[in-house]
Design goal:
Blueprint lengths: L21 H7 L7 E3 L8 H9 L4 E4 L8 H19 L8 E6 L7 H11 L3 E5 L4 H9 L3 E6 L2 H9 L4 E5 L12 H8 L7 E4 L5 H10 L3 E4 L13 H9 L5 E4 L7 E4 H6 L19 H9 L16 H20 L7 H6 L1
Parallel strand pairs: 1-8, 2-3, 3-4, 4-5, 5-6, 6-7, 7-8
Antiparallel strand pairs: 9-10
Helix pairs in contact: 2-3, 3-4, 8-12
């Protein structure tokens, strides 16, 4: 995807501070209670949610654009850093996970240069980039020792992201919330692993511990969990949005490019409430794609969600959601430790 004016940044990171992809795994080793990255939720993710996610042992994240006015981003990052440091001092045996900031690098985001400068100043550990791959952004993050994960929906975008310096990939498969892809997660992960051995997170209808384990089994390092966190106490979502997540399931999700110009998944009742017919939506003009101020107005009334929300049964604190996922994940691992009931053990003996 083409982007706007070039941001002047170092062409390459300093050798002393270089960030090869493998070191992202090392950075997270021993810091996670689950192999999960919480997806950045537009409007919804705020410091309270990020801190709750990180202190529960998963990578918490938020979009830089959630801080409005732009000057608030610096304040929010300071708050997150201070609260995580206090947690780590109080609980040295279970330190918080690192946090991530999402940068929209599409040309319509007129805040990118400002937000990147704030990210650099705070040395944000992980940066998740979306909607375009920009080598100057990657170089700026690498220069201070940070890591870049870029979200993609197909192999073309994945290869471009890695060629332009991304350390890892967020594979956004069918069923993901927000700007989702249309490919099966099996195909997307399998094809990526034929050529890329760096960190991979898988996104797409993951809201249960079994699904986290399944993402690992397919070849991903992390599950990327988003929609389930909308229905948490710390999320800055309207109560109606939270209840809609709890009360609905996969069949209530509509895939359309009408809202932003990029295909995404949205809750059918919110489209209807906004005066749209979910079954007869027109196509969007790509020339009108916008990730600036107007986007906030649209997303305030039309609510995104992935297809995994059938596993969400109540609004609860984020720590309780992570605890549920952790218990389900552990049970799934125990269940799969024994040979499958449909497998003939004689085949193992003959191998």
């Amino acid at each position: 995807m083409e982007t706007g004016a070039t941001i002047e940044r170092p062409a390459a990171p300093s050798p002393a501070l270089s960030s090869p992809a493998a070191t992202l795994r090392e950075r997270l080793r021993g810091r996670l209670s689950l192999p999960v990255i919480a997806a950045p939720l537009f409007i919804i993710s705020v410091p309270d949610l990020v801190v709750a996610q990180c202190t529960a042992g998963i990578v918490g994240s938020m979009p830089s654009l959630n801080a409005r006015p732009a000057s608030q981003l610096d304040e929010w990052l300071s708050e997150i850093e201070e609260r995580l440091a206090a947690h780590d001092q109080a609980y040295p045996e279970r330190p918080s996970a690192p946090f991530a900031i999402n940068l929209i690098v599409h040309r319509s985001n007129d805040r990118l240069e400002h937000d990147l400068a704030v990210v650099e100043r705070h040395r944000v550990p992980i940066v998740i980039t979306s909607l375009g791959a920009r080598p100057e952004v990657n170089a700026a993050v690498h220069a201070y020792g940070g890591h870049v994960m870029h979200d993609v929906i197909n192999q073309t975008f994945a290869r471009k992201a890695v060629e332009k310096g991304a350390d890892g990939l967020v594979l956004v498969a069918a069923g993901a919330g927000g700007h989702a892809g249309s490919l099966s997660p099996f195909a997307l992960v399998s094809e990526t692993r034929t050529w890329f051995d760096g960190p991979v997170a898988l996104s797409g209808a993951i809201a249960h511990g079994r699904s986290v384990l399944a993402a690992e089994a397919m070849g991903a390092d992390f599950a990327y969990v988003g929609s389930a966190f909308i229905a948490t106490a710390e999320a800055r979502a309207e109560e109606g949005h939270k209840r809609m997540i709890v009360d609905h399931g996969a069949s209530d999700i509509v895939y359309t490019d009408l809202i932003t110009g990029v295909h995404g998944n949205y809750l059918r009742p919110s489209l209807r409430r906004a005066g749209l017919d979910p079954d007869n939506l027109s196509a969007h003009d790509p020339a009108r794609m916008d990730f600036g101020g107007e986007r906030t107005k649209r997303w305030k009334d039309i609510w995104g969600s992935g297809q995994g929300i059938g596993a969400v049964r109540s609004v609860q604190p984020a720590a309780e959601l992570v605890a549920r996922l952790r218990a389900e994940y552990a049970e799934a691992r125990r269940h799969l430790a024994a040979p499958g009931p449909l497998v003939n053990p004689a085949w193992d003996a003959a191998a």
